[in-house]
User: Fold these one by one.
Assistant:
Number 1:
Amino acid sequence: MILILEADLAEQSPVFQQLLTRLKALPDIQFRIHQEQGAEQLLSEIYLIGHTKQLRVEDMEALPGVKQAIRVSREYRMLGRHSGDQRAQGFDYNGVHFGQDNLNVFAGLCAVDTREHVEQMMKALQDNGQVCTRMGAYKPRTSPYAFQGHGKACLPYVFELAGKYGIRVIAMEILHESHMDEIREALEKTGHPTGVMLQIGTRNTQNFELLKAVGRQTEFPVLLKRGFGITLEESLNAAEYLASEGNTKVVFGLRGMKSNLGDPHRNFVDFAQVPTVKRLTRMPVCIDPSHSVGSRDAGPDGIPEVFQVTAEGVVAGANMILVDFHPDPATALVDGPQALLLKELPWFLEDVRLARETYEERVLLAAAQGVGE
Ligand code: PEP
Ligand code: MN
């Protein structure tokens, strides 16, 4: 059961303390406090764990400081959507809103290779009104002999250039908790010119100790990719690990499933589950068309397949797009064949705008039918 408390209730306040005394007296119930300082209010939630069936919602709502009690109706206690659940969804980070009702594009380099390429990429983003990007510094590679990313060595110039070109959020995969410290240190040294969304890749979706470590910090939001060979439920539970440790600023990423049934795509595109994740949880949903399709191939109509699957995801309500671009894909050290060209960026963004407009019209059409009333 989740108790939503009145806004701006400090833990030291007498009301909060009275509530804790009452909760401690409940038999077979443990609890965990979660507080979030929003732009205007301090929001507090208390998660009750254990023999909660014995508790009555009305009794819990009569406790001091409690605004609403929600019986958890399914899994994913913290990130899930429960009946009667009116908690706000989404979060703000470094001036960018992430929610189930909007869309952010993260176009950028799969892997940072040279400073020049980073600068060309960021300049193109600024020229096209973009404030988010992807930049891989730590790369999980199939072969131990393949380029592993420049790691912490590239962070200072990546962050400085981001500041120069007005980039507010960089999605960056980490493979180990020490990478968080390296990122924090580089941001500190460069004077925090940008923000970072920590990405947990598909190979680490069920690396529970990494999830716990990333969940224990709340400075950086997290993009958790779906595991390539596990069920959706297993991946959503992985996201819940982050939240259960304290970090609820989580975006869930679909990136295709490893299956030869999807050939010749790199992965079998799973963007049909965008609305499913939005129905089961309150997380914004990201799609990664580049790692799904894996090539720059275009259909006979001239539309690249990366554009096509992006449109599929956006028309279904996706909230974030993680997409590979490169100023010179032939020299890219990682995933060159799937990177779109910088000159294609305005085209891509316009294509996305059309798909988003269609989604918004579809929402209005559904509302006109009385759906959801
Ligand atoms: C990536 O985004 O660079 C990446 C490696 O993705 P995934 O974890 O989905 O393979
Ligand atoms: Mn890649």
Number 2:
Amino acid sequence: MDWTVPQNFAAYTEAEHGVWRTLYRRQRALLPGLACDAFMNGLEKLDLAGGIPDFVTLSGRLHELTGWQVVAVPGLVPDEVFFEHLANRRFPAGRFIRTPEQLDYLQEPDVFHDVFGHVPMLADPVFADYMQAYGQGGMRALGLGRLHNLARLYWYTVEFGLLRTREGLRIYGAGIVSSATESRYALSSAQPKRVGFSLPRVMRTPYVIDDVQKMYFVVDSLQTLLDVTQNTDFAPLYVSLAEAADIPIGDILPQETLFTKAD
Ligand code: PHE
Ligand code: CO
């Protein structure tokens, strides 16, 4: 049982496509200079402007680029099902879209978050490999009882990751690029702490799901993220994490320095 359902593309109303287009235009106008090149390039290649995408057409295009596909699921799926999809280069996406009253905030990921937020990065070959490796790592973490540690890695990279570039900090996290409020806040607000990515550090940092983040982790490149996660055996890390205390959100360790807007 892989929990996939037909997208029922023909059932979307014109009003629902309209909500997509409103969100799309807003983010498309906002993101140049904020989102990283990998995201912007993926967005261009995938042609998502016209309305809620048909997953079959979208998967065809994405498959040509990186071998990934998008499949519809009814909502959140069990962890092992989610990992199994990722490990096989299938991204499970919600098919419902938020209402016009929920443009800025919603609890559960909808098709705009899942497709606009996540799929452009899956058109990048390096990030595509990272997501697959994460799926494989997820199965392993489940077996070792350390999924809560690995989930933090997903949160602080796939959902809320920042990237250091020559032009300054850029966004690659899907939770940020799919939100107008957080796209601005993540790079420009003086409130959140932005610190360099470290694998054990991230896995010791809890997160909140109901507000903008108070902390972001910055990777030097997507390739570094892939290399460091792929080449590290997480099993001994999980063992040491079982003994290590969580680091409260927003705390900065002695050896850490903060990134500022100008970085
Ligand atoms: N190398 C990890 C492990 O040993 C697997 C992994 C790769 C996890 C990439 C997350 C991201 O479990
Ligand atoms: Co997401």
